[in-house]
Amino acid sequence: MMPNEQQPVNALRLDANMRIQQSGDKDVNWYSPLEKPFHIAGFGWLHEERLYRRLPAQPDWKLPEAVDQLANCTAGGQIRFETNAASLTVKVKLSGTANMYHMTATGQCGFDCYIGGPGEQLYYGTTVYDHTQAEYEVVIFKDMARESRIITLNFPLYQGVEEVWIGLEREDQIAPPPAYDNSGKIIVYGTSITQGGCAARPGMAYTNILSRRINREFLNLGFSGNGKGEPELAHILSDIPDPTCLILDYEANCVSTELLQVTLPEFISIYRNKHPLTPILVISRIIYAKDKFHDQMAQDRAERKQFQLRTVEQRRELGDANIYFYDGSNLLGEDAHECTVDGVHPTDLGFLRMANALAPVLQKILSD
């Protein structure tokens, strides 16, 4: 090696905290979270199909091919339970390997863990694994004091999960998690931003952050690049029973102002036919970094925001008191340009700001 030639940096060798922790414990019992007392949230058709999938496998309405594929991404899914375990391991079989350039493998394909009851959940750890593999076994925690804890595991945001198993010691007790404040579901329809691109870990997608502020079940129906407001999606979403709120956050994929002017009123009307009183919250898109440099982008955003606002106001004038509008250009704050990974998709900071802004709005809608 030449005197000034640098060696490649191997942080895994240099930093023990970055190494993969595997259990190697033969006394671990493996449990399927599909069985009681575990509770799985975020998959509207789970009980019928037993699949970690966000839309029905055989819908009554034809899905666009891209939406059908993206429905296998498990964004917003959660495994919830209570246990006195001192150690917790997960074993996962993915549909594929991590393959994104600007999103971490832990966000795309990992699980992360929160400990605590409603309103008191604290982040503990993430599955750090060999991202070239489609299967992994990772210790979430070990050698903890043996006391009762409420656990929430957030599913990967941008990959499918074929199997997941929870590893606990044989003497560990398992119980159901606390009940939600209300059995109604909060349905969030939108784009890659809704799906969670590009959070560093699953718990930082804004729908997952909101689920820690509001003790309800959230269904994340964000479809990367393909939240276009098709009427077929409106029909399928209207089949989800017991909705408590529908959030429409799809302007970023609307294709054009003209198409948005067609899809948004139709989407709302289709949903209203089945759910005349369910609150609907329409959110315009966040500010992109390039909006400050390209006048046409800023103009398009302003026009589309005004159309969404007018649509909501017109329906309220006609007697629909349960439809609302939120100006998404306020979500990231004054220094919005600091809140994305690529000028469009939020980082964890961006998602936290989105949740901070939306939580009080959503809480007021639900209380009304």
TrEMBL record:
Keyword Lipid metabolism in annotation: no
Domain SGNH hydrolase-type esterase N-terminal residue range list: 28-174
UniProt superkingdom: Bacteria
Ranges where the SGNH hydrolase-type esterase domain occurs: 185-363
Xref: InterPro entries: GxDLY (IPR032740), SGNH_hydro (IPR013830), SGNH_hydro_sf (IPR036514)
Presence of the UniProt keyword Hydrolase in the record: yes
Gene3D superfamilies xref list: Galactose-binding domain-like, SGNH hydrolase
Keywords: Hydrolase
Molecular function (Gene Ontology), one example: hydrolase activity
Name by which UniProt lists this protein: SGNH/GDSL hydrolase family protein
